[in-house]
C-alpha cells in the first residue's frame, strides 16, 4: 500500500496510455504518487518542482507497467477435474465423462458441499499465484452453485478475498452458467425460480458488481439470457457475456444491445457481432486457456476486432474444467503464440483493455489521477512479459487505493 507520498525514479515506464510511442513508453522516467494516486509521470529531467521534494525511491532502471488485471476468472470453486482430464486423454468421450460424474456437475457438487472457509482458503492459493505475477485486480464469478445459497456463498468468498489480500476484486453473478441436475430439461424454470431470485438476493446483500451468462447451445439461449439481463438493467448492474465460444447464437450482439462491458471467448463471432460491439463500446475478451485446453481450432476474429477498433482484453478464465490456467504471464504468451497478438496488444489486454472490460476507468494506465497500482519488472523491454514461458520477472508490486 502506498501510504506516503513518494517520487519513483530511475525507471522506464510503459504507461499504456494512448499515444504515438509503443506501450506509451517513457525512458528514464519518474512517477509521483500521493494519496494512493498518480499525480505526475514523465521524463525524470522534467519533474515539476512541486514533486521534487517528495521522498525518492530509485528503482534501479527497472520497467514499470500498470498492475496487471485478470478480468475473467472462476477462481472460487470447490474440487478439481484432474481425473476427468486424465479420462479424456485416455479416450473417454464427453458422455462417458458425464456418466462418471464429471463435467460441470462435479464442480457444482463439490462447491455446494464446501464450507465458506474452505472455498476461501482454496481461492487464496490461486490468488497468491496471480499476485506473484504482478496482478493487482481480479474479477471473480459465481456460477458453480446454481442454487441460491451456494451462489451467495461464492460471492461472499469473493468479497473476502479483498479483505485477505492487497488487490481489488470485482464480483460477477453468473447464475446463468448452466442448468443444475435438479432442473434438467427445465431451463426456463431454473432461470425464473433460481437464477433471477439469486441475482436479486445477491444485489440486496451488495455482493455483485456485474452480471454474466453463458449463451451457447449447451447452456442458455439468447431469449433466456435477455430475461436475466433485464433484471440486471433494472438493478443498475452492468452486464457481460460468455458468447460465441462454440457456435454463433448472436450472444455478443445481444450483449452489445444491453451496453455490455464485454463479450468473452467469441471464437465464432462474425462481423455483424463485431460491429455491434464496436458501436456499444463492448470489449472483446480473449481466453486462450480454454481454447488450448479444449484443443479448439476456431480462432477468435482478431483481424475483425482490429478493423472495427474493438478493444481486446486477455484473461486466464481460471476454472477447474476448461481452463485450469493460473498464470497471467502464460496467458499473454498464449495470446501471442496461438492468436498472433502482438506483445503490446497482450500487455494492453491485461491492463488498459482489461480495466475497460470491468468498467474501471481509474485503472489500467499510468497517468495523473489513476490509482497507483503498479508492477515493477526486472526486464529491459515490455515485450519480455509475453516472450518468456514459465519465467516470472516481477520484482514487486505497488498498490494504491484498494477499493
Highlighted features:
single chain; alpha/beta; 8-stranded parallel sheet; 6-stranded mixed sheet; 403 residues
Give your account of this protein's structure.
- The protein has 403 residues and is of the alpha/beta class.
- Helices cover 38% and strands 22% of the residues.
- It has helices spanning 49-52, 82-89, 94-99, 104-113, 116-132, 148-164, 187-204, 222-235, 251-257, 271-280, 288-293, 302-307, 328-339, 343-349, 352-357, 384-387; strands at 6-14, 25-34, 37-43, 55-66, 68-70, 135-141, 168-176, 210-215, 240-243, 262-265, 283-286, 312-314, 374-377, 394-398.
- Strands 5-6-7-8-9-10-11-12 form an 8-stranded parallel sheet. A 6-stranded mixed sheet has the order 3-2-1-4-13-14, with no helix packed on it.
- Helix 6 packs parallel to helix 7, helix 9 (251-257) runs parallel beside helix 10 (271-280) and helix 13 (328-339) crosses helix 14.
- The longest helix is centred in the middle third of the chain and has 18 residues, at 187-204.
- The protein is globular and about 70 Å long.
Structural class: alpha/beta
Beta strand %: 15-25%
Mind describing the biggest β-sheet? Answer: 8 strands, parallel
Biggest sheet strand order reads 5-6-7-8-9-10-11-12
